[in-house]
Amino acid sequence: MPELSHGRRMLVLAICCMSLLIVSLDNTVLNVALPSLQREFDASTSGLQWTIDAYTLVLASLLMLAGSTADRIGRRRVFMTGLVVFTLGSVLCSLAPDLNSLIVFRMVQAVGGSMLNPVAMSIITNTFTDRRERARAIGVWGAVVGISMAAGPLVGGLLVESVGWRSIFWINLPVGLAALLLTWRFIPESRAPKARRPDPVGQVLVIVLFGSLTYAIIEAPHASFPVLAPFALVALAALVALLRYEPRRPEPLIDLRFFRSAPFSGATVIAVSAFAALGGFLFLSTLYLQNVRGLSAWDAGLWMLPMAVPTFLCAPLSGRLVGSRGPRLPLLIAGGAMTVSGFLFALFEAETSNVTLFIGYVLFGIGFGFVNAPITNTAVSGMPVAQAGVASAVASTSRQLGQALGVAVIGAVLAAGVGSAPYASAFVAAARPGWWILAVCGLVVLVVGLLTSGRWAHRTAERTAERLETAEIRQEAGAHA
């Protein structure tokens, strides 16, 4: 791709951020609408979990395929296709006649969404070649997540209260169409120097693994062991098959050699943990504020601001710190803040007091604001540029998988704790194990961030990059021979 002017690079960044905005906004807006969906469709806790996880699971399953396909046939082409499918899926969601239809249409949305974020990150990585400039761009990218968190609950609350939950999907239409036109006009086409071949077997194994594992977790409180055991066994078999099959392929869907880099492996674990905490945090908070405290969707959205605003403010700061000092400090701040927030709820029932609820939300917002930029930067910085699409797709997959598992696990724990007791009176006690899980997720971010950001970790990243580049040179030599 030819070198672009500074103004053109900024425009490319803005267009890519528009895609992240509608995908991120869609999740935060939907969380505020969950109690409305529960009332209209008489949905169970597991039904609410599936409205979120059907989207995140399909997204996680297809992100790596989208990244490698974009590297092969053209990033702009795949990005534009994703915008069309995502916008169409949003229209279908707004017309859903029942909960099952909504879940199916959310999966259509996810097919389009899988072509947006990892491809957009690949476009950004190839547009911003300077390390510090790239880190700042990724910081802006992370700030958009904060914007969606700040705007999502408020916009969602306002729309749910004034028009109804269906209107939350309408906001994707103007943004999606504008991004489509701007992409067609201003983003140049780019491809990886060497096209990667499809890996249909690996793709099927990923879908089976993610789907069966999540189903077993979500349905655990309601189904018997003989019903769940086959799904757990299928998930285990798919994982074993994936680990045995992928290393034998010259161009696998998941290049397991990436995980020889300690920073890359650490970024993957941190992404799963941080976004599991986010998914569980939003799920518990939304249900508590509206179903236990009895707040309206708008008031619940206002209560989410103490978490959303720090995320928005801290994300660009984290990007600058990553660019100037590396990922360690942002990761330590992120892990520390998220851990303290989780302990505050688990030990002191922070949600029962306005002061402690506010402090817990602020701490979580700070932690999540600092975590996104080092995840993305670490995932792509040590890899060859030709592998940018696949590397960023693995990082994005880890985020979505983490969020899906967070909603699945926390929702299952909550459903098991509430049982047949009155929902409002049993909620706080039933949610306590969930808050402990979120505290552990924060602790994982802290410990893994510390272990995978030192000199030893950097040396493993350098060796991994050298091996990947050497392997690519040998493959090209063999192809020309």
UniProtKB/TrEMBL annotation:
Keyword Membrane annotated: yes
Pfam families: MFS_1
Transmembrane segments: 47-66, 78-97, 103-125, 137-156, 168-188, 200-218, 224-243, 264-288, 300-317, 329-348, 354-373, 404-423, 435-457
Topology term for the membrane: Multi-pass membrane protein
Keyword Transferase tagged: no
UniProt keyword list: Antibiotic resistance, Cell membrane, Membrane, Transmembrane, Transmembrane helix, Transport
Location of the protein in the cell: Cell membrane
Major facilitator superfamily (MFS) profile domain: residues covered: 12-457
Main location: membrane
Similarity field: Belongs to the major facilitator superfamily. EmrB family.
Protein name listed in UniProt: MFS transporter
